[in-house]
Amino acid sequence: MTSFTVNGMPLHYKLDMHTPLLWALRDASNLTGTKYGCGTGQCGACTVHIDGVAQRSCQVPIGSIEGTFVTTIEGLSGDRSHPVQQAWAEENVPQCGYCQSGMIMAAAALLAKVKDPTDDEIDQAITNLCRCGTYPRVRRAIHAAARAMVEQQAIASAPPPGIDPADAAQAVPALVAPVEKK
After folding, report:
1. What is the pLDDT of residues 65-116, one digit of tens each?
2. Which domains are assigned to the chain?
3. Which residue intervals of 11-160 are DSSP H helices?
4. Is residue 34 classed as helix, strand or coil in its secondary structure?
5. Facing residues of 5 across strands?
6. Treating both helix axes as pointing N-terminal to C-terminal, what angle do 135-151 and 83-90 enclose, rounded to 10 degrees?
């Protein structure tokens, strides 16, 4: 059994310790915002934060992250108000949208470290692949989110409609259990 915290909830995973984090999140915790893309760590669709660092979850065995804090796209903000999410909507970044949750997570990790990144810094940090080629909009959105974070102002765009994140993340009880307090 492996224990770590996902989106603020301490959990015990009753899975083989070699199970990729991607599958623990998607199959055991029903956190399907983290996408399977290539399975080789190249595309970035599965990007999550592990202790604040953007990581490709398809390449991380759950046994290697005992005691860490994992944040998925569902945990980035409960109401989709994170500046990166708001900038993505404002700049109409998604086309097909499949890669976007991984890109948003990579961008949020970048902005947590670099308050006003240059285009070169964005290119170095955001190595996620987008088959639709939305890279110019991604850059604009990252710059807009950076401005909003520095100015501590919300971006005018409303969060996109959809399922309440609390309703979307229902764990599969046979595979994951909350940590019991002692």
Report:
1. 999 999 999 999 878 889 999 999 889 998 888 999 999 999 999 999 999 9
2. 2-76 (3.10.20.30), 83-151 (1.10.150.120)
3. 21-23, 73-76, 83-90, 100-113, 119-125, 135-151
4. coil
5. 10, 69
6. 130
